[in-house]
């Protein structure tokens, strides 16, 4: 795959910047996780300290909401993050025939009426990850028409692995002018070996296999915790999925899913972002409702910068050093359990004020570097 051949090195030479500028960097971090809507004005000069609970994970709720389509009954999902991507997913669910009720952070979805196999293009274009609806709608209705996600500010967003995997399962895949139409009278389980552990391809193939005949075996599967969350939800609804979190996932086809209730896992990227924000401002922060195993790839690197990390139960406390943070010799983004690409911009920001030179290598997205030009404008070297 082309992207794997490209490796991007960001070499950062930290230099002395005023504390005011250091705190202004925090503004950049705030912008990483959200769509840019208007402007943010950040008044710097404060340590980021305190205690905060972590919400449900964006990358878990999105595939779960795509998978509820497979259950012709009612799914109740708790701890849904109130973010625009959740709203887009809900809009898609309604557009294809679901009834959705919202009660605080709980979504109650009745997918009994799903009867539309054309996923509305305007909604898909709003959110690249809506491509996961491909597997859900195809599995339920035997047909789906959905736009390709296309490239984005992070670079290429190829879907060849999704499509070649589906073709192996006996799905007829037609790709015309960026619109994918998939049809299948039946899905026939088989072994699919992914050449790269794509998160989205793993999820789409899991969903496609739920009503397949026999076993769908995904090898070299993505191991991200959100995939384990998807497996757990599907199994609560009567699916037979095992192996998520390892390199091989086995989906044994079932005849029908049933009603299910589930609580979404906490967002490890949001948690990591708060930890970095606090570290950058020499702060001290406690995050509640976290899963420590999910955070190790991030907290291990924060400890290398001189931060103290203390886990107790479902909480983590970060205490930044009094002086400057230390550089990290080598930081390489990789599929889980490697260092997550979604934390790369935050760490580039942090390391640009650390003492010494850090070398950061991005291997997942070929254009995830836009923040660097902004940081340079703020004096980063
Ligand atoms: C998911 C996450 C995203 C995270 C990314 C990598 C969600 C909703 N989003 O995105 O936050 O940054 O994982 O951890 O869960 N690729 C191909 N062919 C394919 C599929 C992917 O070449 O068929 C490439 C992509 O272009 C990209 C890389 O593989 O460069 C990673 O993609 P993938 O793991 O699929 O990420 P997403 O599921 O899109």
Give a concise summary:
Helices cover 34% and strands 22% of the residues.
Please render the helix and strand layout as text.
Elements: H1 2-5, E1 8-13, H2 19-32, E2 50-53, H3 58-67, E3 74-78, H4 84-95, E4 99-103, E5 106-110, H5 121-126, H6 133-141, E6 143-147, H7 160-168, E7 172-176, E8 179-183, E9 191-193, H8 199-209, E10 215-219, H9 225-236, E11 240-242, E12 248-252, E13 260-263, H10 268-280, E14 284-288, H11 292-304, E15 308-312, E16 315-319, E17 331-332, H12 344-351, E18 357-362, H13 370-377
Parallel strand pairs: 2-14, 3-13, 9-10, 17-18
Antiparallel strand pairs: 1-18, 3-5, 4-5, 6-8, 7-8, 10-12, 11-12, 14-16, 15-16
Helix pairs in contact: 2-12, 3-4, 3-6, 3-9, 6-8, 7-8, 10-11, 10-12
Bound molecules: uridine-diphosphate-N-acetylglucosamine (UD1).
Architecture overview:
With 381 residues, the protein is α+β, with helices and mostly antiparallel strands. Helices cover 34% and strands 22% of the residues. Helix 3 runs parallel beside helix 6, helix 6 runs parallel beside helix 8 and helix 10 packs parallel to helix 12. Helix 8 links the parallel strand 9 and strand 10.
Task: Record keyword descriptors for this entry.
four-stranded mixed beta sheet; disordered N terminus; binds uridine-diphosphate-N-acetylglucosamine
Bound heterogens, unique:
uridine-diphosphate-N-acetylglucosamine
| Radius of gyration from CA coordinates | 21 Å
Strand content: 15-25%
* Strand line-up of the largest beta sheet: 2-14-16-15
Number of helices: 13
Indicate the mean pLDDT. Answer: 90
| SS class | alpha+beta
User: What's the overall geometry?
Assistant: globular
Q: In this structure, how is the largest beta sheet organized?
A: 4 strands, mixed
Number of strands: 18
């Amino acid at each position: 795959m082309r992207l794997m051949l490209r490796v991007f090195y960001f070499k950062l030479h930290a230099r002395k910047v005023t504390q005011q500028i250091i705190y202004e960097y925090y503004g950049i971090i705030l912008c990483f996780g959200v769509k840019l809507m208007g402007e943010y004005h950040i008044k710097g000069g404060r340590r980021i300290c305190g205690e905060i609970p972590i919400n449900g994970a964006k990358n878990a709720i999105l595939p779960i909401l795509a998978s509820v389509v497979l259950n012709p009954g009612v799914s109740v999902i708790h701890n849904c993050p109130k973010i625009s991507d959740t709203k887009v997913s809900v809009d898609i669910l309604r557009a294809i025939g679901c009834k959705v009720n919202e009660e605080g952070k709980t979504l109650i979805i009745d997918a009994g009426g799903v009867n539309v196999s054309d996923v509305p293009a305007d909604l898909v274009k709003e959110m690249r990850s809506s491509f996961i609806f491909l597997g859900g709608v195809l599995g339920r209705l035997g047909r789906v028409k959905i736009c390709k996600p296309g490239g984005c500010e992070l670079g290429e967003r190829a879907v060849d692995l999704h499509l070649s995997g589906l073709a192996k399962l006996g799905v007829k895949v037609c790709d015309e002018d960026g619109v994918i139409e998939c049809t299948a009278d039946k899905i026939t389980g088989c072994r699919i070996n992914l050449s790269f552990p794509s998160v989205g391809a793993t999820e789409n193939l899991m969903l496609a296999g739920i009503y397949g005949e026999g076993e769908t075996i995904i090898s070299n599967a993505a191991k991200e915790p959100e995939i384990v969350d998807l497996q757990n939800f599907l199994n609560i609804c009567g699916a037979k999925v095992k192996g998520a979190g390892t390199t091989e996932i086995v989906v044994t086809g079932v005849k029908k899913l049933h009603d299910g209730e589930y609580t979404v896992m906490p967002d490890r990227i949001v948690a990591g972002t708060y930890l970095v924000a606090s570290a950058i401002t020499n702060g001290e922060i406690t995050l509640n409702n976290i899963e420590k195993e999910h955070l190790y790839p991030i907290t291990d690197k924060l400890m290398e910068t001189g931060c103290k990390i203390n886990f107790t139960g479902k909480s983590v406390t970060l205490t930044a050093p009094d002086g400057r943070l230390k550089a990290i010799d080598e930081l390489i983004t990789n599929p889980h359990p490697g260092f997550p690409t979604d934390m790369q911009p935050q760490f580039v920001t942090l390391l640009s004020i650390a003492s010494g030179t850090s070398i950061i290598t991005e291997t997942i997205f070929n254009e995830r570097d836009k923040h660097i030009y902004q940081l340079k404008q703020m004096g980063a070297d």
